[in-house]
Design brief:
12 helices, 374 residues, 3 domains, Dna Ligase, domain 1, 27% strand, alpha+beta, D-amino Acid Aminotransferase, Chain A, domain 1
């Protein structure tokens, strides 16, 4: 099958790598001239509102998916006139606006941190009076990896936060105390079959995911997360891989956000899953039988941010799997990752310690940024 992908980043690249053994071929559509999936796929370089280019794209594919959630909804609706697109515009509409997303999750009885829409400074002051400090002010649209948000720790920080983000629709969220962050990834087919991956524990730095561990501890949390994501997928009649990120507060799950796509916190599934999230996304959108979500052991994924170290040290380590996205180095940019594996979670911690010790000197020399104390 010829599959079109809206967006040509590393997620599109990983979808193509997973799809070629299945017999699929891929074309990416992305306004950026230099996209890392372009090394593996044909690339249509055009704006998302260029209907002539979208028509050429649709003519060359059997169906369409996407690699990030900020593709314009209007683009998806236009393409849906002639091709099947999974996930569809309904899921994108919910995920693209933080207020719409929180309202939708709340309507399904899924717990979220207290939040308020903010349209002017008076509303911000009123909401802060209600929530207290600290709180976090966010743009409703287009924020990711810590962008488009400002923590307000005390009253003296209101002006700086407002000045940095005002002029666009905003949302204020109460900054809740949590013990850890976890994510649930699941795939759903048009037939309604669902496959849920083990819960993953995530650690961030400056809003960017640095390290993911799977499986996360806590069977009761896995059951709760599974119920939540099934409720969400059923309500949206969702097709493809969906991710929900949670805060864990006193052993309860508080939903942070959803991502209608394959997700960074599931990259470990390439090397430590019997069927990766990328293969299962392709199986789901083509309505093939979903693969098992069982793991071959415990795994950790460590992102490389900004600069990619020399892989030679890592590749000499028997339990390490190296991934280079083919992207130009840039501060704050995800340029690759490494996956470590072990038989047990306890053994995994020992493997990580040995691995990071071996790489620490090289990391310092290269300037690569990784979560050095996972």
């Amino acid at each position: 099958m010829n599959i079109g992908i809206l967006g040509g980043g590393q997620l599109a690249r990983m979808l193509a790598i997973a799809g070629y053994p299945l017999g699929h071929r891929f074309i990416v559509f992305d306004p950026a001239e230099d996209v890392c999936a372009g090394d593996l796929c044909d690339h249509i370089h055009a704006a998302y509102d260029d209907h002539d280019a979208l028509d050429r794209f649709a003519e060359q594919v059997d169906m369409i998916t996407l690699d990030f959630e900020n593709v314009p909804v209007e683009t998806v609706r236009y393409l849906k006139q002639t091709r099947t697109v999974f996930p569809d515009d309904r899921a994108l509409e919910v995920a693209q606006d933080r207020l719409t997303e929180k309202d939708y999750l709340s309507s399904l009885g899924i717990g979220c941190a207290p939040y308020r829409a903010i349209d002017d400074r008076d509303q911000l002051i009123e909401a802060l009076t209600e929530f207290g400090y600290p709180a976090i002010l966010k743009t409703r649209r287009m924020g990711y990896d810590g962008k488009g948000q400002a923590v307000i720790g005390e009253a003296s920080g209101v002006d700086a936060a407002w000045d940095s983000l005002s002029g666009q629709p905003l949302i204020l969220e109460q900054l809740i105390e949590f013990e850890r962050e976890v994510s649930m990834i699941a795939a759903r087919s048009p037939s309604g079959d669902v496959a849920c991956y083990p819960l993953t524990e995530n650690r961030h730095k400056n809003g960017i995911l640095m390290t993911s561990f799977a499986p996360a501890l806590g069977d009761d949390l896995l059951e709760d997360a599974t119920r939540i994501i099934l409720r969400l997928m059923d309500s949206l009649d969702y097709v493809g891989v969906l991710t929900v990120e949670f805060f864990v507060c006193q052993n309860k799950l508080i939903a942070n956000e959803m991502a209608p796509r394959v997700h960074n916190s599931g990259h470990w599934s390439i090397d430590a899953g019997l069927c990766s999230q990328f293969e299962n996304h392709l199986r789901a959108i083509t309505d093939w039988p979903l693969g098992t979500t069982e793991m071959s052991g415990a795994a950790a994924m460590l992102n490389w941010i900004g600069v990619l170290p020399d892989p030679s040290s890592a590749l000499s380590y028997k339990n390490a799997h190296w991934h280079n996205y083919g992207k130009k180095p840039r501060p704050g940019r995800k340029v690759g990752h490494v996956t470590l594996s072990a038989d047990t979670p306890l053994g995994l911690q020992a493997e990580i310690a040995k691995f990071m010790l071996a790489l620490s000197q090289q990391l310092q020399k290269s300037g690569a940024n990784a979560f050095l104390n996972p």
